[in-house]
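Need a sequence for this fold. Nothing fancy.
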């Protein structure tokens, strides 16, 4: 756990790299998204904002999974991930584990 945002959702940072997991109620900011997304991104979320937490005005991130209101970060789920120009957006099974308090890591990933 790296912190908590203004909306009360926790966010996480990977060890040794600038990669974050956070919940964004509306990733592009104008209030068009319903329910929000859990997001993998290289931008640290703005802890005073309640939407568009990376401040880019777009839904630009490495991976995401839809979330319903109040849904916690899933520990095992199929995420939509960008895998470069050739592969594009693909669905990937990710399993998250907490090896000790305060850190979350990806333990496995398979393309689906």
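Here you go.
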């Amino acid at each position: 756990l790296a912190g908590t945002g203004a909306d009360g959702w926790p966010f996480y940072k990977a060890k040794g790299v600038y990669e974050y997991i956070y919940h964004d109620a509306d990733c592009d900011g104008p209030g068009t998204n319903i329910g929000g997304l859990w997001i993998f991104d290289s931008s640290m979320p703005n802890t005073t904002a309640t939407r568009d937490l990376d401040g880019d005005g777009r839904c630009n991130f490495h991976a995401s999974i839809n979330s319903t209101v109040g849904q916690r970060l899933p520990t095992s789920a199929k995420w939509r991930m960008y895998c470069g120009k050739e592969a594009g957006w693909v669905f990937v099974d990710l399993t998250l584990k907490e090896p000790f308090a305060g850190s979350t890591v990806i333990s496995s990933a398979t393309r689906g």
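For context: The helical segments are 84-87.
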